[in-house]
Hints:
By secondary structure, the chain is of the alpha+beta class. The protein has two domains: 14-55 and 231-292, no CATH class; 84-219, Helix Hairpins (Orthogonal Bundle). The chain is 62% helix and 9% strand. The protein has five helices and seven strands; from the N terminus they run E-E-E-H-H-H-H-E-E-H-E-E. The protein has a seven-stranded mixed β-sheet, covered by helices on one side. Residues 1-46 have low confidence and may be disordered.
Amino acid sequence: MAEGLPCRAGPGEWTPKPPRNPRIPGEFIPSGPPPDCLERRFGSPLGLTLGLVKASPQNQLRLLELADLDAELVRLARRRQGLPEVAELARLEARASELKDAIVATETELGDLSREQGRAERDVDQVRTRIDKDRARLEAGQVSAARELASLQSEIESLHRRQGDLEEIVLELMERSDALVSRRDELAAERDSLGSQLTMVAAARDAAFTEIDEQAGKASDQRAEVGAEVPADLLKLYDQIRGTRDVGAAMLRAGRCEGCHLSMNTVDLNVLRSAAPDEVIRCEECRRILVRTPESGL
Protein backbone atom coordinates (compact mmCIF):
# COMPACT_ATOMS: atom_id res chain seq x y z
CA MET A 1 0.00 0.00 0.00
CA ALA A 2 1.48 3.39 -0.96
CA GLU A 3 2.38 5.72 1.87
CA GLY A 4 -0.26 8.35 2.49
CA LEU A 5 -3.22 6.22 1.29
CA PRO A 6 -5.75 5.37 3.99
CA CYS A 7 -5.93 1.87 5.43
CA ARG A 8 -9.03 2.22 7.55
CA ALA A 9 -9.89 5.59 8.96
CA GLY A 10 -12.51 4.91 11.62
CA PRO A 11 -11.87 5.83 15.26
CA GLY A 12 -9.73 3.24 16.94
CA GLU A 13 -8.77 1.63 13.62
CA TRP A 14 -5.58 1.51 11.63
CA THR A 15 -4.56 4.70 9.80
CA PRO A 16 -1.41 5.32 7.80
CA LYS A 17 1.55 6.71 9.64
CA PRO A 18 1.72 10.41 8.75
CA PRO A 19 5.04 12.09 8.00
CA ARG A 20 6.56 12.93 11.37
CA ASN A 21 9.06 15.46 12.55
CA PRO A 22 12.38 13.61 13.06
CA ARG A 23 12.60 15.19 16.49
CA ILE A 24 9.58 13.13 17.65
CA PRO A 25 10.68 9.63 18.61
CA GLY A 26 8.92 6.43 19.48
CA GLU A 27 7.44 5.04 16.25
CA PHE A 28 7.52 1.23 15.82
CA ILE A 29 6.91 -0.85 12.72
CA PRO A 30 4.68 -3.75 13.73
CA SER A 31 5.18 -7.27 12.45
CA GLY A 32 1.46 -7.89 11.91
CA PRO A 33 -0.31 -4.94 10.26
CA PRO A 34 0.88 -3.30 7.03
CA PRO A 35 4.07 -1.25 7.52
CA ASP A 36 2.38 2.05 6.66
CA CYS A 37 -0.25 1.61 9.36
CA LEU A 38 1.87 2.36 12.39
CA GLU A 39 -0.49 4.06 14.85
CA ARG A 40 -4.09 4.09 15.95
CA ARG A 41 -5.69 7.43 16.64
CA PHE A 42 -8.97 8.18 18.30
CA GLY A 43 -11.21 10.83 16.86
CA SER A 44 -10.64 13.59 19.39
CA PRO A 45 -9.45 17.17 18.95
CA LEU A 46 -6.27 16.32 20.84
CA GLY A 47 -5.50 13.33 18.68
CA LEU A 48 -4.39 11.05 21.52
CA THR A 49 -2.10 8.34 20.14
CA LEU A 50 -2.42 4.71 21.03
CA GLY A 51 0.81 3.06 19.92
CA LEU A 52 1.18 -0.51 18.82
CA VAL A 53 3.00 -1.43 22.02
CA LYS A 54 0.68 -2.91 24.63
CA ALA A 55 1.43 -3.36 28.30
CA SER A 56 -0.45 -4.26 31.42
CA PRO A 57 -1.42 -1.43 33.79
CA GLN A 58 1.14 -2.77 36.28
CA ASN A 59 3.94 -2.54 33.73
CA GLN A 60 2.83 0.94 32.73
CA LEU A 61 2.96 1.99 36.37
CA ARG A 62 6.58 0.85 36.43
CA LEU A 63 7.24 3.57 33.87
CA LEU A 64 6.38 6.16 36.49
CA GLU A 65 9.10 4.71 38.69
CA LEU A 66 11.50 4.98 35.77
CA ALA A 67 10.37 8.55 35.14
CA ASP A 68 10.97 9.51 38.77
CA LEU A 69 14.44 7.98 38.69
CA ASP A 70 15.26 9.61 35.35
CA ALA A 71 14.07 12.96 36.69
CA GLU A 72 16.35 12.47 39.69
CA LEU A 73 19.28 11.65 37.41
CA VAL A 74 18.60 14.76 35.33
CA ARG A 75 18.38 16.84 38.50
CA LEU A 76 21.68 15.47 39.77
CA ALA A 77 23.37 16.07 36.41
CA ARG A 78 22.18 19.67 36.36
CA ARG A 79 23.22 20.14 39.96
CA ARG A 80 26.67 18.78 39.08
CA GLN A 81 27.01 21.21 36.19
CA GLY A 82 25.62 24.12 38.20
CA LEU A 83 27.72 23.72 41.34
CA PRO A 84 28.93 27.13 42.56
CA GLU A 85 32.36 25.56 43.02
CA VAL A 86 32.47 24.80 39.28
CA ALA A 87 31.79 28.43 38.39
CA GLU A 88 34.21 29.69 41.05
CA LEU A 89 36.92 27.33 39.85
CA ALA A 90 36.43 28.50 36.28
CA ARG A 91 36.72 32.12 37.44
CA LEU A 92 39.88 31.40 39.43
CA GLU A 93 41.45 29.46 36.55
CA ALA A 94 40.68 32.33 34.19
CA ARG A 95 42.30 34.77 36.62
CA ALA A 96 45.30 32.46 37.02
CA SER A 97 45.72 32.47 33.25
CA GLU A 98 45.51 36.27 33.20
CA LEU A 99 48.13 36.50 35.95
CA LYS A 100 50.45 34.13 34.11
CA ASP A 101 50.21 36.24 30.95
CA ALA A 102 50.66 39.47 32.92
CA ILE A 103 53.75 38.13 34.69
CA VAL A 104 55.28 37.00 31.40
CA ALA A 105 54.56 40.39 29.83
CA THR A 106 56.02 42.21 32.85
CA GLU A 107 59.18 40.11 32.84
CA THR A 108 59.56 40.65 29.10
CA GLU A 109 59.26 44.41 29.59
CA LEU A 110 61.76 44.23 32.46
CA GLY A 111 64.20 42.45 30.15
CA ASP A 112 63.79 45.12 27.50
CA LEU A 113 64.29 47.90 30.08
CA SER A 114 67.35 46.18 31.47
CA ARG A 115 68.98 46.07 28.05
CA GLU A 116 68.02 49.68 27.35
CA GLN A 117 69.37 50.76 30.75
CA GLY A 118 72.60 48.89 30.10
CA ARG A 119 73.09 50.74 26.81
CA ALA A 120 72.39 54.09 28.47
CA GLU A 121 74.85 53.36 31.30
CA ARG A 122 77.53 52.37 28.78
CA ASP A 123 76.92 55.67 26.96
CA VAL A 124 77.34 57.53 30.25
CA ASP A 125 80.61 55.72 30.91
CA GLN A 126 81.89 56.58 27.44
CA VAL A 127 81.03 60.27 27.90
CA ARG A 128 82.61 60.30 31.37
CA THR A 129 85.76 58.69 29.97
CA ARG A 130 85.91 61.32 27.22
CA ILE A 131 85.52 64.12 29.77
CA ASP A 132 88.31 62.68 31.92
CA LYS A 133 90.65 62.53 28.91
CA ASP A 134 89.90 66.12 27.92
CA ARG A 135 90.43 67.34 31.48
CA ALA A 136 93.68 65.47 31.66
CA ARG A 137 94.90 67.27 28.54
CA LEU A 138 93.96 70.63 30.04
CA GLU A 139 95.58 69.92 33.37
CA ALA A 140 98.74 68.62 31.70
CA GLY A 141 99.06 71.84 29.68
CA GLN A 142 98.99 69.92 26.42
CA VAL A 143 96.85 72.62 24.79
CA SER A 144 98.48 76.01 24.45
CA ALA A 145 96.75 77.62 21.49
CA ALA A 146 93.84 79.83 22.58
CA ARG A 147 91.53 78.59 19.85
CA GLU A 148 92.26 74.94 20.59
CA LEU A 149 91.87 75.60 24.30
CA ALA A 150 88.46 77.23 23.80
CA SER A 151 87.36 74.35 21.57
CA LEU A 152 88.40 71.79 24.17
CA GLN A 153 86.60 73.61 26.97
CA SER A 154 83.48 73.86 24.80
CA GLU A 155 83.65 70.13 24.10
CA ILE A 156 83.93 69.38 27.81
CA GLU A 157 80.86 71.50 28.52
CA SER A 158 78.94 69.74 25.73
CA LEU A 159 79.98 66.37 27.10
CA HIS A 160 78.77 67.36 30.56
CA ARG A 161 75.38 68.25 29.12
CA ARG A 162 75.33 64.94 27.26
CA GLN A 163 76.27 63.12 30.44
CA GLY A 164 73.42 64.82 32.31
CA ASP A 165 70.91 63.88 29.64
CA LEU A 166 72.06 60.27 29.65
CA GLU A 167 71.97 60.08 33.44
CA GLU A 168 68.38 61.37 33.35
CA ILE A 169 67.53 58.60 30.92
CA VAL A 170 69.20 56.03 33.17
CA LEU A 171 67.31 57.37 36.19
CA GLU A 172 63.99 57.21 34.34
CA LEU A 173 64.70 53.65 33.21
CA MET A 174 65.59 52.65 36.76
CA GLU A 175 62.33 54.12 38.07
CA ARG A 176 60.34 52.29 35.41
CA SER A 177 62.21 49.09 36.20
CA ASP A 178 61.52 49.47 39.93
CA ALA A 179 57.80 49.97 39.21
CA LEU A 180 57.74 46.88 37.02
CA VAL A 181 59.52 44.81 39.66
CA SER A 182 56.91 45.90 42.22
CA ARG A 183 54.15 45.07 39.76
CA ARG A 184 55.65 41.66 39.03
CA ASP A 185 55.97 40.92 42.73
CA GLU A 186 52.33 41.87 43.31
CA LEU A 187 51.21 39.63 40.46
CA ALA A 188 53.35 36.77 41.75
CA ALA A 189 51.91 37.18 45.26
CA GLU A 190 48.36 37.11 43.87
CA ARG A 191 49.26 34.07 41.78
CA ASP A 192 50.53 32.24 44.86
CA SER A 193 47.43 33.17 46.85
CA LEU A 194 45.27 32.12 43.94
CA GLY A 195 46.98 28.75 43.87
CA SER A 196 45.84 28.12 47.44
CA GLN A 197 42.30 29.16 46.58
CA LEU A 198 42.30 26.90 43.54
CA THR A 199 43.34 23.95 45.69
CA MET A 200 40.60 24.63 48.25
CA VAL A 201 37.82 25.18 45.69
CA ALA A 202 38.88 22.14 43.65
CA ALA A 203 38.75 20.01 46.81
CA ALA A 204 35.24 21.33 47.62
CA ARG A 205 34.12 20.67 44.05
CA ASP A 206 35.51 17.15 44.08
CA ALA A 207 33.76 16.43 47.37
CA ALA A 208 30.47 17.67 45.91
CA PHE A 209 31.08 15.61 42.76
CA THR A 210 31.66 12.52 44.88
CA GLU A 211 28.41 13.04 46.78
CA ILE A 212 26.40 13.67 43.60
CA ASP A 213 27.99 10.75 41.78
CA GLU A 214 27.18 8.42 44.66
CA GLN A 215 23.54 9.50 44.54
CA ALA A 216 23.50 9.17 40.76
CA GLY A 217 25.03 5.71 41.03
CA LYS A 218 22.32 4.57 43.42
CA ALA A 219 19.61 6.03 41.19
CA SER A 220 21.15 4.34 38.14
CA ASP A 221 21.23 0.99 39.94
CA GLN A 222 17.59 1.38 40.94
CA ARG A 223 16.72 2.34 37.39
CA ALA A 224 18.42 -0.79 36.07
CA GLU A 225 16.41 -2.91 38.50
CA VAL A 226 13.12 -1.29 37.54
CA GLY A 227 13.96 -1.39 33.83
CA ALA A 228 14.64 -5.11 34.04
CA GLU A 229 11.01 -5.63 35.09
CA VAL A 230 9.58 -3.63 32.15
CA PRO A 231 8.82 -5.46 28.89
CA ALA A 232 11.49 -4.85 26.27
CA ASP A 233 9.21 -3.23 23.68
CA LEU A 234 7.70 -0.86 26.26
CA LEU A 235 11.14 0.03 27.62
CA LYS A 236 12.44 0.69 24.12
CA LEU A 237 9.56 3.05 23.41
CA TYR A 238 10.10 4.81 26.74
CA ASP A 239 13.83 5.24 26.12
CA GLN A 240 13.26 6.56 22.61
CA ILE A 241 10.94 9.22 23.99
CA ARG A 242 13.38 10.00 26.79
CA GLY A 243 16.01 10.70 24.14
CA THR A 244 14.35 14.05 23.43
CA ARG A 245 12.68 14.58 26.80
CA ASP A 246 13.99 14.36 30.33
CA VAL A 247 11.60 11.48 30.98
CA GLY A 248 9.55 9.26 28.69
CA ALA A 249 6.33 8.89 30.70
CA ALA A 250 4.03 11.03 32.78
CA MET A 251 1.04 10.40 35.02
CA LEU A 252 -2.40 11.42 33.90
CA ARG A 253 -3.61 13.22 37.01
CA ALA A 254 -7.06 14.76 37.33
CA GLY A 255 -7.40 14.85 33.55
CA ARG A 256 -4.06 16.56 32.99
CA CYS A 257 -0.76 15.31 31.59
CA GLU A 258 1.82 15.83 34.30
CA GLY A 259 4.57 16.00 31.67
CA CYS A 260 3.40 19.05 29.73
CA HIS A 261 0.52 20.07 32.06
CA LEU A 262 -2.00 19.99 29.24
CA SER A 263 -5.55 19.43 30.48
CA MET A 264 -7.78 17.06 28.52
CA ASN A 265 -11.21 18.09 27.37
CA THR A 266 -14.34 15.98 27.83
CA VAL A 267 -13.97 14.23 24.48
CA ASP A 268 -10.39 13.27 25.25
CA LEU A 269 -11.35 11.97 28.67
CA ASN A 270 -14.11 9.85 27.15
CA VAL A 271 -11.60 8.40 24.70
CA LEU A 272 -9.30 7.57 27.58
CA ARG A 273 -12.13 5.97 29.53
CA SER A 274 -13.01 3.74 26.60
CA ALA A 275 -9.41 2.66 25.93
CA ALA A 276 -8.44 -0.83 27.01
CA PRO A 277 -6.29 -0.99 30.14
CA ASP A 278 -3.35 -2.42 28.19
CA GLU A 279 -3.38 0.33 25.58
CA VAL A 280 -0.22 2.45 25.73
CA ILE A 281 -1.46 5.99 25.24
CA ARG A 282 0.78 8.92 24.32
CA CYS A 283 0.13 12.60 24.86
CA GLU A 284 -0.01 14.34 21.50
CA GLU A 285 1.45 17.51 22.96
CA CYS A 286 4.65 16.22 24.62
CA ARG A 287 4.58 12.67 23.14
CA ARG A 288 5.22 11.10 26.53
CA ILE A 289 3.46 7.92 27.52
CA LEU A 290 0.37 8.75 29.55
CA VAL A 291 0.05 6.43 32.52
CA ARG A 292 -3.46 6.06 33.93
CA THR A 293 -3.88 5.70 37.68
CA PRO A 294 -6.77 6.01 40.15
CA GLU A 295 -5.84 9.71 40.29
CA SER A 296 -6.40 10.21 36.55
CA GLY A 297 -9.98 11.42 36.98
CA LEU A 298 -11.42 8.81 34.67
